[in-house]
Specification:
Elements: H1 4-21, H2 25-31, E1 37-42, H3 49-52, E2 60-65, H4 75-87, E3 92-98, H5 102-108, H6 117-122, H7 124-132, H8 134-138, H9 143-163, H10 166-173, E4 179-186, E5 191-199
Parallel strand pairs: 1-2, 1-3, 3-4
Antiparallel strand pairs: 4-5
The protein binds zinc ion.
Protein backbone atom coordinates (compact mmCIF):
# COMPACT_ATOMS: atom_id res chain seq x y z
CA UNK A 1 0.00 0.00 0.00
CA UNK A 2 1.29 3.45 -0.91
CA UNK A 3 1.33 6.31 1.59
CA UNK A 4 0.64 9.92 0.63
CA UNK A 5 4.35 10.64 1.12
CA UNK A 6 5.07 8.01 -1.53
CA UNK A 7 2.47 9.55 -3.83
CA UNK A 8 4.22 12.93 -3.47
CA UNK A 9 7.55 11.35 -4.38
CA UNK A 10 6.01 9.55 -7.35
CA UNK A 11 4.46 12.85 -8.47
CA UNK A 12 7.86 14.56 -8.38
CA UNK A 13 9.33 11.78 -10.49
CA UNK A 14 6.44 12.02 -12.95
CA UNK A 15 6.69 15.82 -13.24
CA UNK A 16 10.44 15.62 -13.85
CA UNK A 17 10.00 12.87 -16.46
CA UNK A 18 7.25 14.76 -18.33
CA UNK A 19 9.31 17.97 -18.36
CA UNK A 20 12.28 16.01 -19.60
CA UNK A 21 10.31 14.40 -22.43
CA UNK A 22 8.56 17.63 -23.47
CA UNK A 23 9.88 20.91 -22.08
CA UNK A 24 6.68 22.80 -23.07
CA UNK A 25 4.27 20.23 -21.55
CA UNK A 26 3.50 22.11 -18.33
CA UNK A 27 3.49 25.50 -20.06
CA UNK A 28 0.69 24.20 -22.32
CA UNK A 29 -1.06 22.53 -19.41
CA UNK A 30 -1.07 25.75 -17.38
CA UNK A 31 -2.28 27.89 -20.29
CA UNK A 32 -5.72 26.31 -20.88
CA UNK A 33 -7.65 23.07 -21.13
CA UNK A 34 -9.17 21.94 -24.40
CA UNK A 35 -10.67 18.51 -23.67
CA UNK A 36 -12.32 16.59 -26.52
CA UNK A 37 -14.42 14.28 -24.33
CA UNK A 38 -16.50 14.34 -21.18
CA UNK A 39 -16.21 11.08 -19.27
CA UNK A 40 -18.88 10.03 -16.78
CA UNK A 41 -17.59 6.93 -15.04
CA UNK A 42 -17.67 4.92 -11.84
CA UNK A 43 -15.52 5.96 -8.87
CA UNK A 44 -14.01 2.45 -8.87
CA UNK A 45 -10.21 2.80 -8.67
CA UNK A 46 -9.72 0.17 -11.37
CA UNK A 47 -11.45 2.23 -14.05
CA UNK A 48 -8.98 5.09 -14.29
CA UNK A 49 -9.89 6.98 -17.45
CA UNK A 50 -6.50 8.48 -18.39
CA UNK A 51 -4.81 5.11 -17.99
CA UNK A 52 -7.32 2.90 -19.82
CA UNK A 53 -7.69 5.33 -22.73
CA UNK A 54 -3.97 6.19 -22.86
CA UNK A 55 -4.78 9.91 -22.76
CA UNK A 56 -2.87 12.81 -21.26
CA UNK A 57 -3.89 15.49 -18.76
CA UNK A 58 -6.02 18.07 -20.59
CA UNK A 59 -7.76 15.62 -22.92
CA UNK A 60 -10.72 14.37 -20.91
CA UNK A 61 -13.09 16.25 -18.60
CA UNK A 62 -14.19 13.87 -15.87
CA UNK A 63 -17.11 13.22 -13.57
CA UNK A 64 -17.16 10.04 -11.51
CA UNK A 65 -19.57 8.69 -8.94
CA UNK A 66 -20.52 5.30 -7.53
CA UNK A 67 -21.93 3.20 -10.40
CA UNK A 68 -21.68 6.04 -12.98
CA UNK A 69 -25.23 7.32 -12.46
CA UNK A 70 -26.83 10.28 -14.24
CA UNK A 71 -29.55 11.73 -12.05
CA UNK A 72 -31.78 14.65 -12.99
CA UNK A 73 -31.62 15.89 -9.38
CA UNK A 74 -27.81 15.77 -9.08
CA UNK A 75 -26.57 19.36 -9.49
CA UNK A 76 -23.01 18.11 -9.43
CA UNK A 77 -23.28 16.13 -12.67
CA UNK A 78 -25.68 18.62 -14.29
CA UNK A 79 -23.13 21.39 -13.64
CA UNK A 80 -20.32 19.30 -15.10
CA UNK A 81 -22.39 18.58 -18.22
CA UNK A 82 -23.40 22.24 -18.58
CA UNK A 83 -19.81 23.48 -18.26
CA UNK A 84 -18.57 20.79 -20.67
CA UNK A 85 -21.04 21.67 -23.39
CA UNK A 86 -21.46 25.43 -22.92
CA UNK A 87 -17.92 26.47 -21.97
CA UNK A 88 -15.61 23.71 -23.21
CA UNK A 89 -17.68 22.99 -26.35
CA UNK A 90 -17.31 19.25 -25.88
CA UNK A 91 -19.31 17.16 -28.37
CA UNK A 92 -18.35 13.65 -27.21
CA UNK A 93 -19.76 12.39 -23.94
CA UNK A 94 -19.02 8.92 -22.62
CA UNK A 95 -20.95 7.14 -19.89
CA UNK A 96 -18.81 4.19 -18.89
CA UNK A 97 -19.98 1.23 -16.85
CA UNK A 98 -17.80 -1.69 -15.91
CA UNK A 99 -17.79 -5.35 -14.97
CA UNK A 100 -17.80 -6.42 -11.34
CA UNK A 101 -19.12 -3.00 -10.22
CA UNK A 102 -19.53 -2.87 -6.44
CA UNK A 103 -22.43 -0.40 -6.72
CA UNK A 104 -24.32 -2.68 -9.10
CA UNK A 105 -23.66 -5.73 -6.94
CA UNK A 106 -24.87 -3.86 -3.85
CA UNK A 107 -28.07 -2.87 -5.67
CA UNK A 108 -28.66 -6.50 -6.66
CA UNK A 109 -28.44 -7.44 -3.00
CA UNK A 110 -31.25 -5.09 -1.98
CA UNK A 111 -31.20 -2.12 0.40
CA UNK A 112 -28.73 -2.19 3.30
CA UNK A 113 -29.47 0.84 5.46
CA UNK A 114 -27.64 -0.62 8.45
CA UNK A 115 -24.21 -0.19 6.84
CA UNK A 116 -24.61 2.27 3.97
CA UNK A 117 -27.08 4.98 4.79
CA UNK A 118 -26.11 7.22 1.86
CA UNK A 119 -24.94 4.68 -0.69
CA UNK A 120 -28.19 2.75 -0.31
CA UNK A 121 -30.17 5.85 -1.23
CA UNK A 122 -27.82 6.66 -4.10
CA UNK A 123 -28.32 3.20 -5.62
CA UNK A 124 -32.12 3.29 -5.58
CA UNK A 125 -32.33 3.90 -9.34
CA UNK A 126 -30.34 0.73 -9.99
CA UNK A 127 -32.61 -1.29 -7.73
CA UNK A 128 -35.55 0.10 -9.74
CA UNK A 129 -33.84 -0.98 -12.96
CA UNK A 130 -33.29 -4.46 -11.52
CA UNK A 131 -37.01 -4.65 -10.70
CA UNK A 132 -37.92 -3.61 -14.27
CA UNK A 133 -35.54 -6.15 -15.85
CA UNK A 134 -35.80 -8.83 -13.19
CA UNK A 135 -36.94 -11.64 -15.50
CA UNK A 136 -33.95 -11.20 -17.80
CA UNK A 137 -31.40 -10.68 -15.01
CA UNK A 138 -32.59 -13.58 -12.84
CA UNK A 139 -32.49 -15.93 -15.85
CA UNK A 140 -28.68 -15.53 -15.89
CA UNK A 141 -27.28 -18.35 -13.78
CA UNK A 142 -24.17 -16.77 -12.21
CA UNK A 143 -23.72 -13.76 -9.92
CA UNK A 144 -21.05 -12.12 -12.07
CA UNK A 145 -23.15 -12.46 -15.21
CA UNK A 146 -26.18 -10.92 -13.49
CA UNK A 147 -24.14 -7.97 -12.21
CA UNK A 148 -22.47 -7.40 -15.57
CA UNK A 149 -25.78 -7.45 -17.47
CA UNK A 150 -27.37 -5.03 -14.98
CA UNK A 151 -24.31 -2.77 -15.34
CA UNK A 152 -24.86 -2.78 -19.09
CA UNK A 153 -28.59 -2.06 -18.77
CA UNK A 154 -27.82 0.73 -16.31
CA UNK A 155 -25.21 2.30 -18.59
CA UNK A 156 -27.79 2.46 -21.40
CA UNK A 157 -30.31 3.93 -18.95
CA UNK A 158 -27.83 6.61 -17.85
CA UNK A 159 -27.21 7.60 -21.47
CA UNK A 160 -30.98 7.93 -21.89
CA UNK A 161 -31.20 9.96 -18.67
CA UNK A 162 -28.44 12.27 -19.85
CA UNK A 163 -30.04 12.73 -23.26
CA UNK A 164 -33.07 14.26 -21.51
CA UNK A 165 -31.02 16.83 -19.58
CA UNK A 166 -31.72 20.48 -20.38
CA UNK A 167 -28.17 21.17 -21.57
CA UNK A 168 -28.23 18.25 -24.01
CA UNK A 169 -31.69 19.00 -25.38
CA UNK A 170 -30.71 22.65 -25.90
CA UNK A 171 -27.49 21.65 -27.68
CA UNK A 172 -29.39 19.35 -30.04
CA UNK A 173 -32.06 22.00 -30.67
CA UNK A 174 -29.23 24.35 -31.68
CA UNK A 175 -27.84 21.83 -34.17
CA UNK A 176 -24.83 20.85 -32.06
CA UNK A 177 -23.31 17.54 -33.32
CA UNK A 178 -23.13 16.18 -29.77
CA UNK A 179 -23.08 12.42 -29.26
CA UNK A 180 -23.41 10.39 -26.10
CA UNK A 181 -21.77 6.97 -25.99
CA UNK A 182 -22.44 4.14 -23.55
CA UNK A 183 -19.31 2.05 -23.01
CA UNK A 184 -18.54 -0.97 -20.86
CA UNK A 185 -15.09 -1.69 -19.46
CA UNK A 186 -13.98 -5.27 -19.06
CA UNK A 187 -11.72 -5.59 -16.03
CA UNK A 188 -10.56 -9.06 -17.11
CA UNK A 189 -9.47 -7.93 -20.56
CA UNK A 190 -8.80 -4.22 -20.01
CA UNK A 191 -10.95 -3.44 -23.03
CA UNK A 192 -13.73 -0.92 -23.65
CA UNK A 193 -16.67 -1.77 -25.89
CA UNK A 194 -19.57 0.38 -27.03
CA UNK A 195 -23.06 -0.78 -26.00
CA UNK A 196 -25.12 2.27 -26.93
CA UNK A 197 -25.06 5.61 -28.71
CA UNK A 198 -27.40 8.57 -28.70
CA UNK A 199 -27.36 11.63 -30.95
CA UNK A 200 -29.66 14.44 -32.06
CA UNK A 201 -33.13 13.14 -33.02
ZN1 LIG B 1 -18.38 0.58 -10.30
Amino acid sequence: MKTVDQLLLLNQEWAARKAGEDSAFFTRLAAAQNPHTLWIGCSDSRVSVDTITATEPGEIFVHRNIANLVSSTDFNILSVVEFSVEALKINNIVVCGHENCGGIKAALGGPDHSTFRFVTGWLKNIRDLYRLHRDEIDAIDDDAGRANRLAEISTIEQVNNLSQAYTIQKAWDNGCPLRIYGLMFSLKEGRLRQVFEKFAP
